[in-house]
Amino acid sequence: MEQKGILIVISGFSGAGKGTLVRALLKKYDEYVLSISMTTRTPRQGEQEGVEYFFTDREHFEETIERDGLVEYAQYCGNYYGTPKAYVEEQLAAGRNVILEIEIQGALKVKKKYPECLLIFVTPPNVEELERRLVGRGTESREIIKKRMSRAVEESEGVEAYDYIVVNDRLEECVEEIHYLVNAARRAPVRRKEFIQGIRKELLSLAKGVQE
Question: Residue 133's closest CA among 17, 3, 2, 5?
């Protein structure tokens, strides 16, 4: 029987390079899939249903909340965003490792609902590099950068809840480190319950046969 995949939550400071890292991981290894969020906002030009998002209306989204159909959800700028449970569980059952790229508060909610999920926090090597990357984007004002740095201070208070911290200094090395950690996590007894139960059943059967 194919082993079930792992639910992986990747978080990190704004500017840590999470998006670039996840894209590189997906490109190199086909056993990973990025969870597709559901949203009530209207599609932007070029966006496709089931590719960037699952698009829906507010009524359907709230019905999904009521029936516990989301791994996690939040509201932002008047629209709902959430992770459909059915899609995640379907991919996990197929043996794929599902990646959620979400912020720390959402990550902790996911951990409560899925205790066996793997939490990875991505950070640059130091604060100077974090600020350099934010400035290097060239898309945000100095005031916004200052707010993001302040936000990073708050986020740093919850890092201890994660399973691993990965320093994103060199992209390729970081991709390999995450892949190594995921493979190691797949072998943890807590994620091999069915395998252990099967071995135990065979041992009991064998022991019974010897006694007879």
Answer: 17
